[in-house]
Write a structure and sequence with these properties.
Layout (H helix, E strand, L loop, with lengths): L1 H5 L2 H8 L3 H15 L7 H18 L2 H22 L6 H15 L3 H8 L1
Length: 116
């Protein structure tokens, strides 16, 4: 269901950019979806990540980028506590980890500060 809503993620991002409140809400929701590896399908995770990456790259907003990374980290932590470690979710776990790492590499200084 979520993959249907996120299939036009770049268009949704372009519509939300002028409105700060909606851009922040879109960033928070996509950050949450991108790390729900035990509850979401792989293509949904990738579509949420692409939407989130487009939003961060086009907005060039440092505080929103930091808040989004912190949100992803906290949601990944919560999901890891509840998600378990079965063999069925291993691919989605790896996809979520790679999405988070790629977002950290957009601005290495902020990523380094968040890591330490």
């Amino acid at each position: 269901m979520l993959s249907v809503l996120l299939c036009n993620g770049s268009d949704a991002t372009k519509c939300c950019l002028p409105f700060r409140v909606y851009a922040k809400k879109l960033a928070n929701n996509c950050a949450k979806i991108a790390v729900l590896y035990s509850q979401a399908e792989g293509n949904t995770i990738i579509l949420a990540f692409n939407t989130l990456r487009s939003l961060i790259m086009w907005s060039q907003d440092g505080p929103m980028y930091e808040a989004t990374l912190k949100r992803m980290y906290n949601e990944f932590y919560r999901s890891s506590k509840l998600g378990g470690g079965s063999y069925n979710i291993y691919n989605n776990l790896r996809t979520s980890q790679n999405c988070f790492i790629e977002l950290l590499s957009i601005d290495r200084q902020v990523g380094y500060q968040l890591g330490f």
